[in-house]
Every structure is written in C-alpha cells, then in structure tokens.
Amino acid sequence: MLEKNIRTASEAAIVDEAIISRRSVRAFLPDMVDDETIRAILAVAARAPSGTNMQPWRVYVTKGEVKQRISDAILNSGIRAEKAEWDEYRYYPDQFFEPYLTRRRANGFGLYGALGIGRREVDKMRAQHDRNFIFFDAPVGMIFTIDRRLNQGSWIDYGMFLQNIMVGARGRGLHTCPQAAFAPYHRQIRPVLNIPDEEIVVCGMALGYEDTSKPENEFRTDRAPLEDWVTFAE
C-alpha cells in the first residue's frame, strides 16, 4: 500500500507540474519542433472526451512559408484588431462586468508593465498585440476549426482538447499560447489553408520553445482562491 501511495503521489506531481507550468508564452525561440513530436501531442490530446465520441476538432498545423502567408494576410489586411469583426462567434461579452473587468485589466496592465509599455502608449500596445499574428515567433502555428453545424456541447469538448494539447506540450518541454485573436480574421486565413465554409475558425495556437530572455515571459497571472468560486454541498 505504501509503495502504491508513493507511486500515486509521484504521478500526481508530474501531472500537476504539467498543468501548473502551462502558461501563455509570448516569445519563442526559432528552434523547430519536429512533426513526430507534434503528431504525438495531437494524438494524446485527441483522447479528450466528447459527447458520443464526436471528436469535433480539426487542426491545421502550419510552419515556414504557409505560416508566413497567414501572418502576411492578416497584417496586410488593414483591419486593426479593435475593428476586427467577430461575426462567427463572440468570445468576450459586449460589456465587461465584475469580477471579470478587474481580472482583465490586471492581465493587460501586468503584461504591458513587464514590457515597459505605459498605459497611454497605444502604438506600442498595438505592436505587441500584432505579435499574435506572427505566432509570437513560434516555429509552429496551429489553426483550429469546428463544423458550424455543431452545437455548444461540442465547443465544451473542444476546450478540453485544446487544454490537452497545451499540457501534452509541457510534458515534452514545449510551451504554447492559445490565441483567440485569429478568429475574427477567418476571411484572411481561409484561402491560405483552403478552409471550407462550413468550418468556423475557433482560435490559433503558437507552439515551440520558450525564449526565457524576453521580459514578457516573466509575467505570471494569478488565480482567484477556491473560496471565491467553489461551493461544497453535502
């Protein structure tokens, strides 16, 4: 029994570390990730649960020239992020309210503070946001889509799949950044990847090795204490 408990504690520590160390990295090294590793991560991630095992995910893995074409199409579109139209689905509420407004502001101020960008330096903020569209220099950029005929339950399943990718990446010493910022630019992305009309662009994700020399990667978000959001009922 003691040996079993020790093994269980050791396994829990490994899983916990993969989850806790997952964060949105916003500067990557150019070191390439081989296709075998990417395939392994995606295969493991696909063990995510889905209603009646529908597996609603579809992934476009991009590198090199194709990834650059996506970046160019968005950055040369002339559509600023604040003017981009969320016409396929809405990620954020039209009006932020508490406690979400405070958390959102803390996240933005914390990131820009780590970069030395002041609250009125709008051009620098925009330039940093535009780094989304080059996948923060990651060697691998993934675009995720879902069939528009599916319902909300499949979107819940999709979230578990995305989390599995990010945790699976950590188990291999890699980092990620999930990026909803790509969704409003589906018109620019579709022709590059030949995405069918029946597929909605859910998000993008950068994948690669963290550049630990960059200040933006020193930023850490916090989490609300359990007492704020957990209810135990007996």
Verbal overview:
Keywords: Oxidoreductase. Belongs to the nitroreductase family. It is a single chain. This protein has helices at 2-20, 35-45, 64-75, 100-114, 122-130, 152-170, 186-193, and strands at residues 58-62, 140-147, 175-179, 199-208. The protein is an alpha+beta fold and 234 residues long. It has a four-stranded antiparallel β-sheet. Helix 2 (35-45) packs across helix 6 (152-170) and helix 3 (64-75) runs antiparallel to helix 7. The protein starts with a helix and ends in a 26-residue tail after the last strand. The model has no long low-confidence stretch (mean pLDDT 96).
Structural class: alpha+beta
Mean pLDDT: 96
Order of helices and strands: HHEHHHEHEHE
Q: Specify Rg, calculated over alpha carbons.
A: 19 Å
Q: What would you call the shape? A: globular
Helix content: 25-40%
Count of individual helical segments: 7
* Beta-strand proportion: 5-15%
Q: How are the strands of the largest sheet arranged?
A: 1-2-4-3
> What is the subunit organization of this protein?
single chain
Query: Sheet bearing the most strands, described?
Result: 4 strands, antiparallel
- Residue stretches low in confidence (pLDDT < 50, at least 5 long) are none
Distance between the termini: 29 Å
Say how many strands there are. 4
Domain Nitroreductase: 20-209
InterPro entries: Nitroreductase, Nitroreductase-like
Keywords: Oxidoreductase
Family: Belongs to the nitroreductase family.
